[in-house]
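Reminder to self: C-alpha cells first, then the designed residues, so the page reads top to bottom the way the pipeline ran.
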C-alpha cells in the first residue's frame, strides 16, 4: 500500500481490523471471505456509520484479498447490492467542515495566550489558513521547507494527498501589510525565534510548563488546537476541523472575487494540475489566492 496516502492506509487498517474482529466473533473465515458474510458485516458495520465509511470498509476487505491473490468478495453482486442499499437509505452527502473565514481566524488569534504555546498556535492557525493547507501537509512541515522571499515565504510541500510520488509543490505566504497581526510570515518568525527552531519539525508540542518537545505535533493535536481556540473564541466547534481553515480560505477568497486560477494555485486542487505547473515556479506570488484574504 505504499502508493496510498498515509491517512488512507490508517483508515484501511482500522476497517480491516473491524472485519477481523467480526469474523472472529462469529466464527467466520477471514480470508477468503464469503460474500454473504461480508454482506452481513457491512450491514452491521453501517448501522451507525455513514455510507461512505462502510464503502471504505468494503474497499479495505477487497484490497486485502487482491494483495493476497484471492478472489475479491466485493465484486460479488450481493455485496454491490448491499452497498447500494446503504447508500440509498443513509445517503452519501458529505458532512462538510464549517469554514473559518478571516474574521473567524482573527477571533481565534485573539484567543491565543502570550506565551510559547500561544506563539506556536498563532503561527499554526495563520499558516494553515493563508496557505490553505491540507491537514497532513500542515503537520508535515519542517523548518527547511520555508524559503524567505521579499514578498513573504514560499513553502515547499514535499508530499501530499495529491502528490504521492513526492515531486513537491509550492504554496506562498505573503506579508499581510494591511492587518499585520494576522500576518503568517511575522507569526512564523516569532514562533521560530521564541522556540529557537532552526531545523526539523516546524510544529512541536509545548507543555503547560512551557517546555518544547522534539517530536512532531500530530494531526490530531492540530485538530485539538483549532477546536480549543474556537471554543475560547465562542464559536460552535461541532463541525470545526483542520479542514475548516482550508475551506475558509477558499470561501473568503471567492467572496473577494479571487480568480479560480488563483484559488486552485494555492489549494492545489487536482483539476488545475496542468495550469499550476506553469505559474508556480517562475513567479509564485503572482497567482495565489492568499492575496485576496483582506490581510
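Designed residues (295 positions):
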Amino acid at each position: 500500500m505504499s502508493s496510498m496516502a498515509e491517512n488512507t492506509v490508517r483508515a484501511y487498517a482500522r476497517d480491516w481490523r473491524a472485519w477481523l474482529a467480526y469474523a472472529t466473533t462469529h466464527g467466520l473465515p477471514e480470508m477468503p471471505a464469503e460474500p454473504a458474510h461480508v454482506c452481513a458485516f457491512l450491514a452491521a458495520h453501517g448501522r451507525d456509520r455513514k455510507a461512505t465509511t462502510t464503502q471504505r470498509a468494503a474497499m479495505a476487505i477487497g484490497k486485502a484479498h487482491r494483495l493476497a491473490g484471492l478472489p475479491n468478495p466485493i465484486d460479488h453482486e450481493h455485496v454491490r447490492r448491499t452497498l447500494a442499499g446503504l447508500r440509498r437509505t443513509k445517503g452519501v452527502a458529505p458532512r462538510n467542515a464549517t469554514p473559518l473565514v478571516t474574521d473567524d481566524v482573527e477571533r481565534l488569534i485573539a484567543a491565543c495566550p502570550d506565551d510559547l504555546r500561544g506563539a506556536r498556535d498563532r503561527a499554526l492557525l495563520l499558516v494553515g489558513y493563508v496557505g490553505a493547507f491540507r491537514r497532513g501537509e500542515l503537520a508535515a512541515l519542517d523548518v527547511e521547507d520555508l524559503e524567505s522571499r521579499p514578498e513573504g515565504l514560499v513553502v515547499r510541500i514535499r508530499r501530499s494527498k495529491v502528490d504521492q510520488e513526492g515531486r513537491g509543490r509550492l504554496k506562498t505566504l505573503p506579508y499581510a501589510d494591511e492587518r499585520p497581526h494576522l500576518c503568517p510570515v511575522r507569526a512564523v518568525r516569532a514562533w521560530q525565534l521564541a522556540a529557537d527552531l532552526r531545523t526539523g519539525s516546524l510544529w512541536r508540542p509545548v507543555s503547560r510548563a512551557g517546555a518544547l518537545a522534539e517530536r512532531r505535533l500530530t494531526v490530531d493535536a492540530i485538530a485539538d488546537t483549532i477546536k480549543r481556540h474556537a471554543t475560547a473564541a465562542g464559536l460552535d466547534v461541532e463541525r470545526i476541523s483542520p479542514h475548516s481553515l482550508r475551506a475558509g480560505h477558499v470561501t473568503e477568497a471567492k467572496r473577494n472575487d479571487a480568480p479560480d486560477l488563483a484559488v486552485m494555485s494555492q489549494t492545489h486542487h487536482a483539476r488545475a494540475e496542468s495550469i499550476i505547473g506553469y505559474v508556480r515556479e517562475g513567479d509564485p506570488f503572482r497567482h495565489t489566492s492568499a492575496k485576496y484574504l483582506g490581510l
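The first strand starts at residue 146 and ends at 149.
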